[in-house]
Specification:
Elements (H helix, E strand, L loop, with lengths): L1 H34 L6 H15 L5 H17 L3 H27 L6 H25 L31 H11 L12 E6 L6 E5 L4 E5 L3 E6 L2 E10 L3 E6 L2 E6 L1
Helix pairs in contact: 1-2, 1-4, 2-3, 3-4
């Protein structure tokens, strides 16, 4: 039963293909003979299109048989010379090919990427990153940075550690405060770097920095080895503000502003 159903579906598919190709070729032939003002009759063109379409469905060699058969049929139907028949057949096959492409494209639909969906995904990613940053900031309430057994843990931090922003303080104020608290003896790279641009995007923020030798793009929390006039140094982007960033070059913290 399954084999009979499969054979029936296969025959139906071939029949639909044959009918569609015959109709397309018939329309193309009628258009061409009317444009060239050939004498013809409808049933002769229909038989020519049906014969050529049926032979064209033979695998591998069908098209090579269908073309000369169509030539012969059109010679009998139109009573024109061989050159005119060859031209009519060639243009008709080209029109059939264009019709097939049109039908195929209509079934495939719109293949262009959905730019609005991509924009929505990027917006969702940015909002998720900002929400994650907000959750991390909410976890660090005043007085919870050190446990009860370590009341002086903040005093034991090294001098190069980046100070935490107080509640209500902006990132720019934290960056300026870090610059004021940086030891003057470590100001080796204070005038080396310059900020070319800032892109704020939560945890995915980025900055374009000129090291005095080359221009680098560095992300928040990312470390890069940069070439400077004072040699190569490992630089980490610790904070990104609206118009300034906080870098850690080696063991030195450097505030770079526009």
């Amino acid at each position: 039963m399954v084999n009979i159903l499969a054979i029936g579906l296969m025959v139906l598919g071939f029949a639909i293909h044959f009918v569609v190709e015959t109709v397309f070729l018939l329309l193309a032939l009628i258009m061409m003979v009317k444009i060239q003002k050939f004498q013809f009759h409808f049933w002769g063109l229909l038989g020519s299109a049906a014969a050529a379409s049926a032979l064209d469905m033979i695998p591998y060699v069908g098209h090579y048989i269908a073309v000369p058969v169509l030539y012969i049929c059109l010679l009998k139907v139109t009573r024109e010379d061989f050159t005119g028949v060859v031209f009519t057949s060639a243009i008709s096959y080209a029109l059939v090919f264009a019709m097939n492409l049109f039908v195929l494209s209509s079934f495939m639909g719109d293949l262009r990427p959905d730019l609005h969906a991509s924009a929505r995904e990027r917006t969702s990613g940015v909002q998720a990153g900002q929400a994650a940053d907000g959750d991390e900031d909410a976890d660090l309430e005043p007085g919870q940075g050190a446990g009860p057994s370590q009341p002086n843990a903040a005093a034991k931090l090294p001098a190069t550690a980046a100070p935490q922003a107080k509640p209500g303080a902006t990132l720019a104020q934290a960056v300026v405060r870090a610059a004021e608290e940086a030891p003057p003896a470590q100001a080796q790279f204070s005038n080396v770097f310059s900020l070319k641009g800032v892109t704020k995007n939560g945890s995915h923020s980025m900055a374009v920095v000129y090291s005095g030798v080359k221009t680098y793009t560095i992300g928040l929390g990312e470390s890069l080895t940069m070439e400077t006039p004072k040699g190569k140094v490992v630089v980490k982007c610790e904070k990104v503000g609206d118009k300034s960033i906080l870098l850690k070059a080696g063991n030195e913290q450097v505030v770079v502003g526009q």
